[in-house]
Amino acid sequence: MRYVAHVPLIGGFALANQNITKTPPVAITSYSPFKGNDKLYLRYLQKKNIVVPYFEIDKLEKEGKVRDVQHLIGKLDFVSSILPCNGLSMSGNLKKGERANSPVNDWMYKSAEFILGTLRPTVFVWENAPTLYTGIGECVRNKIMEIARYHGYAGTFYKTDTLLHGVPQRRPRTYVILHKGNNAPILNYYKEESPNVEEFLKSIPKNATLQDKYVTKEPFISDFEIVRFSKMKFGENGWRQAFLDTREHLTSYDFLNRNGLLEEFQKFVLSEENPNPASVKDIAHVIKKIGMGKNFRLSHRVLCIDKHHVYAVIGEMMERNIHPTEDRRINMREYMHLMGMPHDFDLLEPKEYGKLPQNCPVKTNEDITKEVIAIIKGERNFSSRRFEMQDNTKYTGMKNKKLF
């Protein structure tokens, strides 16, 4: 299989492609704004003594040389990409209409025009936000279909979740699979059981780096007011279970609210010899907002406990998730493991840590890569329609030869 990694960013899709095909990409194509992110993947390739040509398409366009790329690369089986998704992201702080029309989505259109019109692989596949599958993303899907149809491609929008691919992380995503021709490909369904977080993290080698590095400035939680209060109420060994008995996924303030403990916790905080001003302010804010029937948003010493799996590894959650058995937050290597990054893949400084969530777990991408290869080899059925929506999250376990 000959493939190109387009806008690979930290490299989750490209690494998955390499794991399945057993060969590196024949080239990497990207744009200048993403070079800082792409360099993390390029650095790893260099570490492995793998040399892959890197093309900055926007610079080549200015020089009138973009068409030369196709001749240099040659015929391709597929192109994979991790295109920016914060235009459709629920965490992008945009309103519904703004998410659909965000200029950030232009990278999808620009990339589709270049890949389908210039490189012309058999398949172009990329991952994006879950809302690309919903009504919010309808106008974006329509634009993608318009570009695909113009260049002679059909496609499937495939909704899935990393939790269904054997990794204890709930991370819903939408994949776009555009295939040269007039009929949308039908992908297999996936529903692989995953170990719980505790068991999953145990598989990290002891000598792996970054096990002493954290996103937060306060990685250890034993002295947090909420931890001391919870241990006082439910015992040294029972406080975590008290959280999990309340709900499988909740924050520390949600736990207090659901158990009617907000006022008692406030008294506990105020009774401290030197109460933390931020903690005093936060609990008062929470009580006030809940009294008004409103939601609240905090960042100071907010903890999140999960029983089986963590929720999407994103910036905010990376500061909240705590280890399933130890009184600390989850460290960087553990987050990288949840994202499927190789244990010898390094991040060199804190400013690089934030680039990890701009990715999709390698295991999910490996399964999508398998589907792409099967489509190219003629091992998958095709719909009678040009474009289809396929929801892997609604898989019931039934074996279907055809969906449509």
Q: How many helix segments?
A: 17
CATH class designation of the largest domain: Alpha Beta
First-last Cα distance: 29 Å
CATH superfamily of the largest domain: Vaccinia Virus protein VP39
Shape: elongated
Q: Taking all residues together, what is the mean pLDDT?
A: 92
Looking at the overall shape, the CATH architecture of the largest domain is 3-Layer(aba) Sandwich
What would you call the quaternary organization? Answer: single chain
Helix content: 25-40%
Structural class: alpha/beta
**CATH topology-level fold name of the largest domain:** Rossmann fold
Largest sheet: 8 strands, mixed
Number of domains: 2
User: Which stretches are poorly predicted, pLDDT < 50 over at least 5 residues?
Assistant: 89-94, 398-404
Radius of gyration: 23 Å
| Strand-residue proportion | 5-15%
Question: Can you walk through the features of this model?
Answer:
The chain has an 8-stranded mixed β-sheet with strand order 3-2-1-4-5-8-6-12, sandwiched between helices. Strands 7-11 form a two-stranded parallel sheet. It is elongated and about 70 Å long. It is of the alpha/beta class and 404 residues long. Helix 6 (106-119) packs parallel to helix 7 (138-150) and helix 12 (262-270) runs antiparallel to helix 13 (277-291). The chain has helices at 12-21, 35-47, 57-62, 68-73, 96-101, 106-119, 138-150, 197-201, 225-234, 239-246, 252-258, 262-270, 277-291, 315-318, 332-338, 350-353, 362-376; strands at 3-6, 27-30, 54-56, 78-82, 123-128, 153-161, 169-170, 172-180, 249-251, 304-306, 310-311, 387-391. It folds into 2 domains: 3-195 and 359-394, Vaccinia Virus protein VP39 (Rossmann fold, 3-Layer(aba) Sandwich), CATH 3.40.50.150; 214-330, no CATH class. Mean pLDDT is 92; it is low at 89-94 and 398-404. Strand 1, helix 1 (12-21) and strand 2 (27-30) form a beta-alpha-beta unit. It is built from 17 helices and 12 strands. The protein is 38% helix and 14% strand.
